[in-house]
TrEMBL record:
<dbReference type="GO" id="GO:0005524">
    <property type="term" value="F:ATP binding"/>
</dbReference>
<keyword id="KW-0813">Transport</keyword>
<keyword id="KW-0547">Nucleotide-binding</keyword>
<dbReference type="GO" id="GO:0015423">
    <property type="term" value="F:ABC-type maltose transporter activity"/>
</dbReference>
<comment type="similarity">
    <text>Belongs to the ABC transporter superfamily.</text>
</comment>
<dbReference type="GO" id="GO:1990060">
    <property type="term" value="C:maltose transport complex"/>
</dbReference>
<protein>
    <submittedName>
        <fullName>sn-glycerol-3-phosphate import ATP-binding protein UgpC</fullName>
        <ecNumber>3.6.3.20</ecNumber>
    </submittedName>
</protein>
<dbReference type="GO" id="GO:0016887">
    <property type="term" value="F:ATP hydrolysis activity"/>
</dbReference>
<feature type="domain" description="ABC transporter">
    <location>
        <begin position="4"/>
        <end position="234"/>
    </location>
</feature>
<dbReference type="GO" id="GO:0055052">
    <property type="term" value="C:ATP-binding cassette (ABC) transporter complex, substrate-binding subunit-containing"/>
</dbReference>
<keyword id="KW-0378">Hydrolase</keyword>
<keyword id="KW-0067">ATP-binding</keyword>
Length: 238
């Protein structure tokens, strides 16, 4: 579960091609980070995988099945939005339950899954609070909880920590990595922060103007950057 293949995928907005033909292989259980400067196409690429944008050409397959034409709900992936996407008038419990209610899952299953997610995210004591009564980090954990209960083949994160202050970011980074260890589910994580990329990733995808400059482990990119852009961006001395 969670193997994603992009084959000659392109994306244009009007005349502007923001993703030239791109191939990418994401393996089951991998923690993959898309990194690159603002405007390089990270969010677009993630949204193409999620199905929130249509490809202009090319194919996306998920776990061996062609997903290119599938709507987001049929792809089995969960996009984790920034915490401000929570419903402020609903309790944490109801926020986490929301996607299951929409999917018509029975109450007993909902309850069990909410409790398991709350346990995994250290939210057990906060289930009856409203988002406004939580810290930024706790709110972000609720947003992740809402994704966990769907048991997705992969989690897609788009700069999930950019609204948090620096100290909180470090803590949340560790929590997301811990969650990846626990769930062993594929995670694709978008950031423009080199430190986040280098500390979190199994595999880093370095993007510039929609082009993959290099794919590799943090150590590979550090020791053998393919070009000056990668070296400069990753902070390698080469
Ligand atoms: P990043 O997430 O790396 O900052 P984006 O994927 O958001 O970059 O954007 C990549 C490029 O595509 C940018 O030039 C941006 O202006 C353009 N773009 C993104 N979404 C749209 C859209 N809906 N319509 C037109 N241009 C877009
Ligand atoms: Mg973006």
């Amino acid at each position: 579960m969670g193997q994603i293949t992009l084959n000659q995928v392109t994306k244009s907005f009007g005349e502007a091609q923001v993703i030239p033909p791109l191939d990418l292989e994401i393996n089951e259980g991998e923690f993959v980070v898309f990194v690159g400067p603002s405007g390089c196409g990270k969010s677009t690429l993630l949204r193409l995988i999620a199905g929130l944008e249509d490809t202009t050409s090319g194919h996306i397959s998920i776990d061996g099945k062609d997903a290119t034409e599938l709507p987001p709900a049929k792809r089995g992936l969960a996009m984790v939005f920034q915490s401000y996407a929570l419903y402020p008038h609903m309790s944490v419990r109801k926020n986490i339950a929301f996607p299951m209610r929409m999917a018509g899952i029975d109450e007993a299953t909902q309850k069990a899954k909410i409790e398991a997610a709350a346990k995994a995210l250290n939210l057990t004591d906060y289930l009856d609070r409203k988002p406004g009564q939580l810290s930024g980090g706790q709110r972000q954990r609720v947003a992740i909880g809402r994704a966990i209960v769907r048991e997705p083949a992969a989690f897609l994160f788009d700069e999930p920590l950019s609204n948090l202050d620096a100290a909180l970011r470090v803590g949340m980074r560790l929590e997301i990595m811990e969650l990846h260890e626990k769930l062993a589910t594929t995670m694709i994580y978008v950031t423009h922060d080199q430190v986040e990329a280098m500390t979190m990733a199994d595999k880093i995808v370095v993007l510039q103007a929609g082009v993959i400059e290099q794919v590799g482990s943090p150590l590979e990119l550090y020791h053998t950057p393919r070009n000056k852009f990668v070296a400069g961006f990753i902070g390698s001395p080469k």
